[in-house]
Amino acid sequence: MVWVSRVLLRQYGRFMDDLRIYVRGGSGGMGFPRLGGEGGKGGDVWLVAQEKLTLKKIKDRYPKKRFVAGTGSNSSIVALKGAKGKDCEVMVPTGISVVRDDGEVLGELNKAGERLLVARGGIGGCLATNFLPSKGQNQMIHLDLKLIADVGLVGFPNAGKSSLLTKISHATPQIADYAFTTIKPELGTIKYADFKQITVADLPGLIEGAHANKGRGHSFLKHVERTNQLLFVVDVSGFQLASTMPFRTAFETVILLAKELELYKEELRTKPAILAVNKMDLPNAQEKLDEFMEQLQNPCDYMQSLPTGMIPENPVKFKEIVPISTYSGEGIEKIIMCIRKVLDEEAEKKIEDYQRKQIHSLHLSESS
Ligand SMILES: Nc1nc2c(ncn2[C@@H]2O[C@H](COP(=O)(O)OP(=O)(O)OP(=O)(O)O)[C@@H](O)[C@H]2O)c(=O)[nH]1
Ligand SMILES: [Mg+2]
């Protein structure tokens, strides 16, 4: 049994980033034709954002994943106007997009306390409806978690992303010498001496053509979207997916990865990024690294080997480049520090931007 549960855990990961639920507004109440009485409106279904909730908790608490609001009261002699049905409030985590089955985005819930109406109750029976009530709106919706971690590990398969996660956190993702070992994101937490914690998501490897959904690229790139900072991991010796595919040097993998992100969504390229050049313990790694650094300094001189359309619009820029080896431990401490530094800088920038906006709006209100 232990074995079975481990397999399941491995297959489905430790967390959920998408939950599909059924929501239905309550039916309206019956009208009262003889006295012209109006039935009560059916209750509505609302999503209400709350901190410290997870999609998994919702699923565990409501395994049927059905949320139905109350029916409006019928009109009667003692209460001609029927009472409204009880609203149903579904507590959901902050940072989710609410998406219908057909892909239409109904809204986002970003801060605790925010509410979104997802199923309206039906109107009560009245003169206009021949005193017959109508049913509530019903639909299947996805609660799609937007941000899963502070940092996302981005790379081609086999670069050593999972190995790096095990070095910087207590997570224990599967590691193996074949492509696509990781098929679902795995989370780890880096704990700093001042108790600050940063979450890192080990993501499945991307391949060339990921932006066009090759190798399930879209579902993997969706996870990249959900992180604040990117940590590119490349094998210093380069990568070849199969003997029938072209060999790519470390430089080419970086350029191709950057282009895949850009083609999928340009905003992904604006995220702050760090580059970890892995497997520095391998023979000749230092010469390969020197060559790689030279190529990164003058990228335009080295991009002829890339397929047409795969040259990024903007130059590839990294906040830090750190040679590492998850085998020898080289560069691991440095990468932990760099992750923290870049996140802190970004947080400061956000505060400054916010303050600047506040001052700007204050000036505007004073001058009007
Ligand atoms: N020599 C050497 N091998 C490494 C190093 N880090 C990881 N590896 C090996 O590289 C292979 C791939 O490692 P993973 O951590 O599974 O790579 P990944 O990027 O998570 O791969 P996917 O999940 O398939 O995308 C394994 O055989 C690791 O043992 C390193 O620093 N040096
Ligand atoms: Mg992996």
UniProtKB/TrEMBL annotation:
Q: Does the keyword Nucleus apply?
A: yes
Could you tell me which residue ranges the OBG-type G domain spans?
Answer: 149-344
Say if the entry is tagged with keyword Glycoprotein.
Answer: no
User: What cellular component GO annotations does this protein have?
Assistant: mitochondrion; nucleolus
Pfam families, per database record: GTP1_OBG, MMR_HSR1
The molecular function terms in GO held by this entry are: GTP binding; GTPase activity; magnesium ion binding
Q: Where in the cell is it found?
A: Nucleus, Nucleolus
Q: For this chain's UniProt record, which GO biological process terms are given?
A: ribosome biogenesis
Q: Which UniProt keywords apply?
A: GTP-binding, Nucleotide-binding, Nucleus, Ribosome biogenesis
Obg domain sequence ranges: 13-148
Which superkingdom is the protein from? Eukaryota
Family per record: Belongs to the TRAFAC class OBG-HflX-like GTPase superfamily. OBG GTPase family.
The name this protein carries in UniProt is GTP-binding protein 10
Which species does this protein come from? Varanus komodoensis
